Amino acid sequence: MHAGLSxxxxxxxxxxxxxxxxxxxxxxxxxxxxxxxxxxxxDAYFARRAQEGSLDYENxxxxxxxDFLSDKMVALDRDKAEFCYQLCRxxxxxxxxxxxxxxxxxxxxxxxxxxxxxxxxxxxxGTEHEPRKVEFACQNFRAAGLSEFIELREGDLRQTLxxxxxxxxxxxxxxxxxxxxxxxxxxxxxxxxxxxxxDNTTVDADEYRDYFEFVNxxxxxxxxMTVPLEGGFELTVRV
Length: 239
Ligand SMILES: C[S@@+](CC[C@H](N)C(=O)[O-])C[C@H]1O[C@@H](n2cnc3c(N)ncnc32)[C@H](O)[C@@H]1O
Known about the structure:
By secondary structure, this protein is of the alpha/beta class. It has helices at about 5-10, 20-50, 65-70, 80-90, 105-115, 130-145, 155-160, 180-185, 210-215, and strands spanning about 95-100, 125-130, 150-155, 170-175, 190-200, 220-225, 235-239.
C-alpha cells in the first residue's frame, strides 16, 4: 500500500476529492496561469513564422520550433483535466498512462484520481522527452505530495511506452504528432472498458487521420466519439 493511503483514508469523509484540497488547488491555479500566460507568446511565434513563410509543413517541428517549445507547458485545459479526473474515478482506475506529460499539470489530476480511488499499487505512467520539462514536472509532483503515484519515463514515447507492465484502465493522449504511435504501443494493454482520451483532434483533421483510422478499425475493438470540448476531445472505449 502507498504510504499516503492510510492518511488519506482518515481524511476521506471530509474531502472526497483531492482536487478540493486548498494546497493542490493553489498549485494547479499557479500552473494553469503560468501555462495560459505562454499562450500569447506561442501564438505570436506561429504568426511570425507563418508571415515569414518559414514553416515547413513536411518537417513542421524544425530546430527553431523545437527550441521555442522546449519550455512551453501547453497544459491541458482545466475542464478537460477535471473530466479526466472524473473518468478515472468512475473507472476506479489503478493504472493510467499519459502520453505527453510536459510539466505535469494533467498528471497531477490523474495522480489525484488514482490516490482518491484508494487502490493498491495505483500508478500514473507519464512520459516526456524534454529534460527541462521532466525536471519541472518532478518538482510539481513533489510540491503536490503525489510523487509516489507517478512514474515519469524520460525519453521518446516510442521507446518509453514499449512495455507498460500490466493492464491499463485509462490513457490520456496529449501530444500533437505522435498520437497514434502512443496509442499503438498501449492498445494491447487496455483492459475491456478502458477509456482513451485524445486532445485537440478536430483542430487539424489531417494530423489525426491515422489515429481515427486506427480507433475506427473494427479489428482494434474500440467505440469512439468526439466530445465537443474546445478543439475536440476524442473519447474512445476498449470494447
Ligand atoms: C501538449 S504537451 C502535454 C501537456 C500535459 N499533458 C499537461 O497537461 O501539462 C505535449 C508534450 O509532449 C512532449 N512530446 C512530444 N513528442 C514526444 C515524444 N515523441 N516522446 C515524448 N514526449 C513527447 C512535448 O515535449 C510536450 O511537452
